[in-house]
Design brief:
Layout (H helix, E strand, L loop, with lengths): L1 E7 L6 H14 L7 E10 L11 E9 L5 E7 L2 H30 L24
Parallel strand pairs: 1-2
Antiparallel strand pairs: 2-3, 3-4
């Protein structure tokens, strides 16, 4: 899974931010690592640096999945750490929702032992329960 971090509007894009974001997303989204090809992260300051504001940092994440349309989320917060973590949680939920449906559908198509009469052995020593003790 390739992670690309882009910043603009007064947010420093330092190498340590890139490393931390890559490690965090690889850990946070580990169960989807086979499905996700790329993740693009965009961190912006909506008020352009020196201006104040309670919720002025935005983090947008877009996950690209092989053979499916990309999944994008965004989160606003008072600092870039909270914006990033909130977007990562939203992306996890969106991936779970989108790819979890596929897992459930595939699960229904599998054969089970309950459908195979040859696999269910009958033991004559086991008597059906009457429900009376």
């Amino acid at each position: 899974m390739h992670v690309q971090v882009n910043t603009s509007n007064g947010i420093d894009n330092k190498e340590s931010l890139d490393r931390w974001a890559i490690d965090y997303l690889n850990d946070h989204l580990a169960r989807f690592s086979r499905d996700i090809t790329d993740i693009e992260v965009q961190l912006t300051d909506e008020n352009h640096g020196d201006k104040g504001g309670s919720v002025d940092k935005r983090c947008m994440m877009e996950a690209r999945i092989a053979g499916r349309p990309p999944i994008a989320v965004k989160n606003y917060a008072s600092n870039q750490d909270l914006a990033f973590r909130g977007a990562a949680d939203k992306l996890l939920h969106a991936l779970d929702h989108a790819l979890g449906k596929l897992d459930r559908r595939q699960h229904r198509e599998r054969e089970t032992i309950r459908r195979d009469p040859d696999a269910v052995a009958t033991d004559p020593s086991i008597q059906p329960s009457t429900g009376v003790l």
